[in-house]
From TrEMBL:
It comes from the Bacteria. Residues 27-41, 173-182 have a biased composition (Polar residues). Pfam families: F5_F8_type_C (PF00754). Residues 25-57, 167-201 are annotated as: Disordered. Residues 16-152, 156-290 form the F5/8 type C domain. CDD domains: GH55_SacteLam55A-like. This is Discoidin domain-containing protein. It comes from Streptomyces lannensis. The lineage of its organism: Bacteria, Bacillati, Actinomycetota, Actinomycetes, Kitasatosporales.
């Protein structure tokens, strides 16, 4: 910690009749968006601390490390912070500032506080300000009647240095480490609870590789008790020859920031004289780059080279569709990415065949604004009539009047059919009725009959159908007018009248000549389509950074830090650092299956524990160096209530291997509460390049630690351990499709705790309440067909655990299941792919 300054606080007695807090000027914080590490209960949310009412309060959970932060909406020069404590006050705490809500600088450290009202003079600039509680004064949490931030916006001096930490998550090394628990990487991981420490001798150093030569302007150091009395901040372009940017003597530890001037790829903290008898120990090192000469990221602009915008008068339109299809029809692991956008109007005689990484969308506010008298077709000619690999394509927001009365949409996973009006029938099988393994429909009207024919499984949500003819194994419906009645005991159907929580995927449309993104409102107990009522709001394109191929992670993060949303145009984006989504209600939308590839073992994307983030329409492809987590929603321990405005993850797909070796310990980790996962395919590749038990190893598909998380349309396949591991309370899943890893070398390789095989879907033993409907797991143990998997599903036997309509299947007799769930359910047998079912457990 830095030099501690005790605040002078006067204890006050609250009036019996509360009045709004008064000040000589209106705080910059009043009425702004506020978030917290936790809330004691629903009656004490973060927003109460910035509402200007001294009779409402925020209070936290009863643990020491808690925080409250406010988003001022723009960069401000901050001069004063006033904290009006309730009886549960902070004894030791910090006032911190950030430009991006992720990297924080200390403005003031308070020790031995005595509650009441603390008025703190500070000096700093940033958009976000927070109270970071270190030690509580009572057995309760932290509680603030009001948290007020004063200063100026617009007239202050612009920051001369970037606020992002260029060293976060970068490769690190050190002259020594005290032990295996204090590695060099811990000083650059962005976690103030982990540290690097050295052996107890002089000199010692720790360094980070920024990945490229950059202009350096500031370094922040947070020392543990074992600090450096004398040290140098050094830079190097090659990691061998060092230039000293700053020499420090007489240091006293704690947190300190040092302005520097120079450039380098490598940054080193070189300790020469220890301040204690121990070694050197740093909680965090933050490196800042750039200067005020770097212009802000601009929103809006054109949609890039791979977005094809057409109208009914576009010449040779059929030829455009045919050209893209010829390139993409069998390009399963290629790099081509395309988005067709159709302006409102009527298109006659069109057959838009969709290959890999091709999306087609109407640009009207309603599907019927864009009318196709023709077809949007997915078939399987490229794969000899087998549609089980027709992945990664989509259709959205238009009307189809099929040329022969029925449109063909023969797809497998990751091929959403959203917000479509089919003025006729819909055939979900390939020509010749070969194998098919889909699929997902949402917010759509099919006037005629849907014929799934050979489709093994399907999920349909908040739609209407004129009829549904058959099904193979697992057909699930929620909120679908015209859906068949449940018959899972004798057939494939699981039907719920409504969807408990849903919010449709954001989409791009034209308002006159201006592009906007429509974000739908949340619906509860929904049934039928959301249009033409279209409850929600529109965001102009100039509030989006339109990301085009070649954009760097640093620029994308800078755009997010400015408060811009992201619109990824079709392409493949290599990331040398994690994308940090920290602002509530941020929209991250992809076109044409835009693909993010994390390099050098970084995570691809982290989402803060904030309200209403919308992630939609993109693919994350694991890199060749192992990432810990490809997508993380909320940090570990996230506990804020987002029930009124949940984060949604829609048509976000994960791939490990197939396009080359890929590695990730965890694919998706959900720590935030109330998240809605609406259609995802999380896939460890079973074919393609870079495929093998260890070559594209990924232990876990989806891990849910947050409470009250809902999954609608969950496809997770082939992971080395658990495909889904659910540890949060009150979780719900509606429709789950799974295949176990084909390439398990033998039973011993997947045996754990005396159990052969990891369950496809495991609810942790600590969970008390969980419910799921329409779940299927299939085994196809091609490497060792003698494997007998203990069960497809594993859940604690408790009154609050309810599992409906589960099945397991052996595909062609390559491996078997001994049970469906736990030790219950008949074993599969033989080669006839006959499912073993349970309609209710327990």
């Amino acid at each position: 910690m830095g030099v501690a300054l005790a605040a002078t606080a006067a204890l006050i007695t609250l009036p019996t009749t509360h009045v709004p807090a008064a000040a000589a000027e209106t705080p910059l914080s009043q009425g702004r968006s506020a978030t917290s590490s936790s809330d004691e209960n629903a009656g004490t949310p973060a927003r109460n601390a910035v509402d200007g009412d001294a009779g409402t309060r925020w209070s936290s959970a009863a643990t020491d490390t808690q925080w409250l932060q406010v988003d001022l909406g723009t960069t401000a020069s901050i001069s004063k912070v006033v904290l009006n404590w309730e009886a549960a006050y902070g004894k030791d705490y910090k006032i911190q500032v950030s430009q991006d809500g992720s990297s924080w600088n200390d403005l003031k450290s308070v020790t031995a506080g005595d509650g009441g009202v603390d008025t703190l003079d500070v000096s700093g600039q940033g958009r976000y300000v927070r109270m970071y509680g270190v030690h509580r004064a009572t057995q309760w949490g932290y509680s603030l009647w009001e948290f007020q931030v004063f200063g100026t916006t617009g007239g202050g001096t612009a920051p001369t240095c970037g606020t992002a930490n260029a060293a976060k998550g970068r490769p690190a090394s050190a002259s020594s480490t005290e032990n295996a628990g204090t590695p060099a990487s811990a000083a650059f991981d962005g976690d103030a609870g982990t540290r690097w420490s050295s052996q107890a001798s002089d000199p010692q150093w720790v360094q980070a590789d920024l990945g490229s030569v950059q202009d350096l302007c500031k370094v922040d150091l947070t020392w543990e008790a074992a600090y450096a009395k004398e040290f140098q901040i050094q830079a190097s372009t090659d990691g061998q020859n060092w230039t000293t940017l700053k020499s420090v003597t007489g240091a006293t530890g704690g947190s300190a920031s040092y302005d520097v001037s120079g450039s380098g790829r490598y940054v080193r903290i070189n300790g020469t004289v220890r301040g204690t008898g121990y070694g050197y120990s740093l909680w965090e090192v933050a490196v800042h780059t750039g200067s005020s000469t770097t212009p802000p990221v601009q929103g809006g602009g054109d949609l890039g080279p791979n977005v094809i915008v057409v109208d009914p008068s576009t010449p040779n339109l059929q030829q455009k569709f045919d050209q893209v299809f010829a390139q993409q029809e069998s390009s399963q692991f290629g790099t081509g990415r395309y988005q067709f956008l159709l302006k409102p109007g009527t298109y006659n005689g069109i057959n838009a065949q969709l290959g890999f990484y091709t999306s087609i969308s109407g640009l009207g506010l309603n599907p019927d604004d864009t009318q196709i008298n023709g077809d949007i077709t997915v078939d399987a000619g490229w794969f000899n009539g087998n549609a089980t690999q027709n992945f990664w394509r989509s259709a959205e927001n238009l009307a189809i009047r099929p040329s022969n009365g029925t449109d063909r949409w023969a797809v497998a996973q990751a091929a959403p059919f959203r917000r479509i009006h089919v003025q006729g029938g819909l055939n979900l099988a390939p020509n010749g009725y070969g194998w098919a393994s889909g699929g997902y429909i949402a917010d759509s009207k099919i006037d005629g009959t849907v014929g799934p024919y050979s489709q093994q499984q399907w999920y349909t949500r908040d739609s209407s159908v004129g009829g549904w003819t058959n099904g193979v194994w697992n057909m699930t419906f929620t909120g679908v007018q015209g859906a068949p009645a449940s018959n899972f005991d004798t057939g494939p159907y699981t039907t719920l009248d409504t969807t408990p929580v849903s919010r449709e995927k954001p989409f791009l449309y034209l308002d006159g000549s201006n592009y906007k993104v429509f974000v739908s409102a949340k619906r509860t107990n929904a049934r039928g389509v959301s249009w033409p009522a279209n409850a929600g709001a529109s965001i102009p394109l100039d509030q989006f950074y339109v990301v085009k191929p070649g954009a760097t992670a640093a620029t994308i993060n800078a755009a997010l830090a400015q408060g811009l949303n992201l619109l990824f145009t079709p392409g493949v984006y290599h990331l040398d650092r994690t994308l940090e989504v920290t602002r509530a209600d941020t929209v991250v939308l992809g076109l044409g299956l835009a693909t993010l590839v994390p390099d050098n073992g970084v995570d691809a994307m982290h989402v803060a524990d904030v309200d209403g983030v919308r992630l939609a329409g993109f693919l994350i492809d694991a890199g060749a160096t192992n990432s810990d987590t490809l997508l993380q929603i909320g940090p570990a321990g996230a506990a804020a209530d987002h029930s009124a405005n949940p984060t949604t993850m829609q048509d976000v797909f994960i791939r490990i291997g197939g396009a080359g070796p890929g590695l990730a310990t965890n694919s998706v980790v959900v720590n935030s509460d109330d998240v809605v996962i609406d259609h995802t395919w999380i896939w460890r590749a079973d074919h393609g390049d870079g495929v093998g038990w260890n070559t594209n190893r990924a232990d876990y598909g989806l891990r849910v630690n947050g409470d009250d998380v809902l999954a609608t349309g969950l496809f997770v396949e082939h992971f080395n351990k658990y495909d889904v591991l659910w540890s949060g309370e009150r979780g719900r899943t509606i429709f789950f499709q799974n295949e176990k890893a084909y390439d398990a070398p033998n039973a011993a390789a997947i045996t754990h705790d005396g159990i052969v095989g990891y369950a496809a879907y495991k609810v942790a033993d600590t969970v008390n309440v969980h419910e799921a409907w329409g779940l299927g797991s299939y085994c196809n143990y091609t490497a060792d067909p003698s494997i007998v998997q203990a069960h497809g599903f594993q859940v604690p036997v408790k009154t609050g655990i309810k599992m409906h309509d589960l099945l397991v299947i052996s595909l062609g007799g390559k491996g078997q299941y001994a049970h469906v769930v736990n030790d219950t359910g008949a074993p599969t047998s033989g080669t006839d792919t006959v499912p073993s079912k349970i309609t209710q457990f327990p």
